[in-house]
Fold this protein.
Amino acid sequence: MVVIMKPGHSKQELEHAIQEMERGGVNVMISKGAETTILGAEGNAQGIDIEKMESLPGVERVMRVSEPYKKANRKYHPDDSVVEIAPGATVGGKKLLVVAGPCSVESEEQITAIAKEVQQTGAQALRGGAFKPRTSPYSFQGMGYTGLDLLEKARAATGLPVVTELMSTDDIGYFAEHVDVIQVGARNMQNFDLLKRLGKVNKPILLKRGLSATIEEWLMSAEYILAGGNPNVILCERGIRTFETFTRNTLDLSAVLAVKRQSHLPVVVDPSHASGQAWMVERMSLAAIAAGADGLIIEVHNDPVHALCDGQQSITPAQFRELMAKVGAVAQCVGREL
Ligand code: PEP
Ligand code: MN
C-alpha cells in the first residue's frame, strides 16, 4: 500500500499518517519527491483501514500495490533513481552511462591499453571480468585477484571506475574495498544468499537479468538488495534465452520499457551478450538508447580474434569510437546526452 500526501501538507499531518500506518502493523518508507511525499507500507498492510487513512487531513489518496516488489516499485518512489558510481559519474538521470572494456582482464598491457582507448572515446567506466562464470570448467576462468589488481592499475591510469563480476559470497568484503561497481551476473541473479549480502554493502550493484528470468523475478532480485538496505541497484538487460539460435540471446528491449514503467531503478543494456555478434552491437546499442535505456555496457577488445573470452562479440576501440558518435546523435533525439 502507498499513501500519497497532499502537496503542502503539514509536518503534523505527515506524522499522523505515519503513526496510523504503523498502528496497522507496517514499517513506513518515506519518499520525498520534488512535488509529492509518498508513504510506502513495508510488510502486510491488511491491518490498515484504507477509508480511515484516506479521511486523514493531508492525505490525498491511498493505493493498494499488488506487485510483490515494493522498494523497487515506482509507486513507492515515483522519481527516477539516480545511482552514483563514482564522483561525477551517475546513471539514471539525463546523462547516459557507457561502460566499456573486455569480457575478461587478460594482462596489464591489455586492460590498461583498452581502458585508455575507451576513456578517450568517452566511456565513463571500465568493465573487465576477473572471476568468470564459464559454461565449461576447461575454459579460461579469469585471473581472479590478480585481475582485480590489474583493474585497479587501469583505474589509476585513467581515472575510470571499474565494474567487475562477483561470483562468491566469500569475496564480498574484498570487492567492496577494491571495486567501484559490483556486477551480479545473469547466472547468479537468483543467488539469494549473494543478493542478501549485497544488501549490506555500500557499493552500487549492477544486476544482470537471468537467462530465463521474467521481469517480475528480476525486480524481486533487485528487491532483495534494496530490502537489505542498499539502494544503489542498476539493472542490466543482457538478452534472454529463447528458441532463436541465430543470436546468442534475444535482446528484450521491451523489458527496458516495462522496467522503467514498473520501477524507478536505472536500466542499462548489454548488446554484446544479448547478440553475441560484434557486427550487431552498434545497431543494438542505438536501439537500446532509442528505447529509453539509461546506458550501455559494451565489450571492447583491442584484439578480438585472440580474446580469451567472448571475442566474437567484442568490438574494437575504433568500432567503439564510431558507435559512440552515433549513440550521441540518437541520445540527442530522445532528450538524453552522453
Ligand atoms: C559478462 O558480463 O561477461 C557476463 C558473463 O555476462 P552475463 O552474466 O550477462 O552472461
Ligand atoms: Mn563476456
Residues 103, 129, 133, 185-187, 208, 238, 273 surround phosphoenolpyruvate (ligand 1) (CB under 6 Å).
